[in-house]
Specification:
With 213 residues, the protein is α/β, with parallel strands linked by helices. It has ten helices and five strands. The structure holds zinc ion.
Amino acid sequence: MIDQLLEGNRVFVNDEFGPHESYYKAIAARQSPKVLWIGCSDSRVSEDVITGSRPGTMFVHRNVANIVAFNDVNIASILEYAVVHLKVEDIIVCGHTRCGGIAAIEDGVHENYIADWLCIATGAKEATDRIAAERKLSREQKLEVLTAENVKLQIKHLHNLALIRNRHARGVLPRIHGWLYRVETGTIEVLVEGRAAGRTKTPAKKTAARRRG
Ligand SMILES: [Zn+2]
């Protein structure tokens, strides 16, 4: 497997890097991604491959079940760097079908660190249990609802972080999007349209016109 990966790099250098050397030289000098991707560590959800993006397009954080944790210095520092220094315009939280982390939230898991980590998604499980009982969902349907509810919960966590909340209060980006990637079909569905929540500034001209009227 390791030899295969190194051979893959030789193919990348010959077929991609070489023919587009000016692009790669430019990003070697300075990265300026416009997007922060928060996705699952799952090997099937390679953000650049599934979105047809070249290196340099997205700043990336991946963990089990694409969770935004309040007490995680790792994601906090990534967010700060992406938002304050790189000034990304958009953050995408992307969940996916057939997610082992989501199944573990549903089934309950007792292994140490994984169990502790998945506690952060407890709110999504509670919301999903209510929906599943009302609609009498099958296990597969329930797991899909849980995946979507988890994306929504992690977006809520992002909106609640002071770093994001203070920017949105001033009407400053980033927009936050929620996506679902289907590993069975390779397609992405938009669960939550991107928005920069907070105070909406009334354009000065319109206010003046309204006063005159
Ligand atoms: Zn996953």
